[in-house]
Amino acid sequence: MMKQVRKYLLPLVMFLIFETVAVTLWLTKGNIFYLLNFSYIGGSIALGGFLIAGGYKYARRVVQLLVGLYMLVYLGLICNENMQIEGFWYYLFTGVFEAATIHYAVAKIFGPLLFGRGWCGYACWTAMVLDFLPYKTPSQPRRKLGWIRYVTFAASLIFVSALFLAKVGNIERIMFWAFLVGNAAYYAIGIALAFAFKDNRAFCKYICPITVFLKPMSYFALFRIRCDKEKCIDCGKCRRVCPMDVDVTDNARTRKNGTECILCMECVRNCPKNAL
Ligand code: SF4
Ligand code: SF4
Ligand code: SF4
Fold it and tell me: Which of 28, 65, 178, 266 keeps 20 to 30 A from 139, CA to CA?
């Protein structure tokens, strides 16, 4: 009974957290966009939480599409906000605490202290497409290619720094084009890697520069999947269905690939003993 109540309470808490951010930013920055933006995202996530609690199989995909398409199409293509990592550096260097910097602060830097890599499971517009591919669970062991993420992270920082150092004009326009080209490259590389490694999430595991922020912060996440050792029969099903190779039966923060958990709930849905 308590577990059922907790399942429905969590989306409500998430909605209240997003509403707090929405109202605070609206009042402090005097811009109603923040109220609408964060209410929409919080509402979408809460809706997904209720659908998950109700057992709807595609709940996570619904949230991914609601939030991912909104950010890619509305914020990115229509409002010309570069929400990729270059946009974050750009706004950071100009000292503007606006869309991309706020987005990174909430979803990718401080948010993960609360909800881990929920961004990766429910909102990312890159994974929104990759999750449609056929390799939902990896069939091969993880490769030692995680170092590539540091290269792409450094490349994004060097690219934006060079634009500032060279005093290039109209960087705002360049940022918009960087958003288009960057996204096209992410999709192309992500899809190619998924087929090459037979793993939809290969891009997330090896290439994505944002994980340089996400992984260390999510190590301390408040919301994590825990295993009830009394109920677990060590059947290994949770490990087999996990898209991110997490050993969720280990409750330690140092568990294998612990900072990779995207809270997709596949392990919870598939556990035969209701131990997660
Ligand atoms: S690892 Fe990167 S590409 Fe993958 S879901 Fe997270 S933010 Fe998106
Ligand atoms: S699926 Fe459930 S019972 Fe099986 S190992 Fe995982 S937690 Fe234990
Ligand atoms: S299957 Fe479980 S452990 Fe693996 S990413 Fe999803 S929620 Fe995390």
Answer: 65
Check whether 239 has a pLDDT greater than 80: yes
Residue boundaries of the structural domains of the chain: 84-217, 224-276
| Cα of 190 from ligand 1 centre, angstroms | 10
User: Ligand 3: which residues within 6 Å by Cβ?
Assistant: 225, 241-244, 246, 248, 261-267
In the predicted structure, residue 21 carries a pLDDT above the cut 70? yes
Judge whether residue 1 has pLDDT over 70.
no
pLDDT of the residue at 172? 85
Helix axes 85-93, 148-165, angle to 10 degrees: 40
What pLDDT was estimated at residue 63?
Answer: 95
265: left (phi over 0), alpha (psi -120 to 50) or beta: left
Best residue among 203, 212, 218, 245 to mutate for probing ligand 1, ranked by most atoms within 8 Å of CB: 203
- Residue 260 is given by DSSP the state G
Prediction pTM value: 0.92
Give the mean model confidence (pLDDT) for residues 9-34: 90
Q: Does domain 224-276 have CATH number 3.30.70.20?
A: yes
Q: Which residues contact 109 (CB under 8 A, 6 or more apart)?
A: 213, 217
Say if ligand 2 is within 6 A of residue 240 CB: no
